[in-house]
Amino acid sequence: MEREAKIGKNIHNLRLKQALAQEREKKKWESLRRELEAIRRYPPNTPYRKAGRMLYEALLPLQENSDAEVDKAAIRTAGKILYEAEGMGGMRDPLLWGFIPKSCKSIVILLWHGIGEWRADGE
Predict the structure, then answer these.
(1) Taking a C-beta distance cutoff of 8 angstroms, is the pair 118, 91 a contact?
(2) What share of the chain is helix, strand, coil (3-state, %, to 5)?
(3) How crowded is residue 98: how many other Cβ atoms within 10 Å of its Cβ?
(4) Which of 5, 13, 85, 122 is buried most deeply by CB count within 10 Å?
């Protein structure tokens, strides 16, 4: 009986963790959408605005459908813009990455492979 209670508690904790992760992901998408709206209010006259807008717009279709096609060229171009403007520091900008949902980070990491010193296996 004690073993069954532990198993039940573990299952409950696992479901709770999954629900919390889903909620965090949902909030991250809301943050990305708000940031994109803010960026769109201004002309893309800085590398961050231009690259951020391009990157976030390319990722947005994944919110509704995780199997959606993304604009790979736009994601890659965004990385190049950031690299040309600020080097690896621009590509690693915590503000930029802070709005990207966890489910999308690996896509960006892979598509930026080879831009400057960026390596998909080590970044």
Answers:
(1) yes
(2) 75, 0, 25
(3) 11
(4) 85
Where does residue 62 rank: exposed (0-12), middle (13-18), buried (19+ CB within 10 A)? middle
Residue 13: pLDDT above 90? no
CA separation for the pair 112, 94 (Å, rounded): 16
- The radius of gyration of the chain from alpha carbons, rounded to an integer in Å, stands at 18
For residue 51, is pLDDT > 80?
yes
Map residue 25 onto helix, strand or coil.
Answer: helix
Average pLDDT over residues 41-45: 92
Work out the number of other CB atoms within 10 angstroms of the CB of residue 123. Answer: 15
Question: Percent of the chain having pLDDT more than 70?
Answer: 97
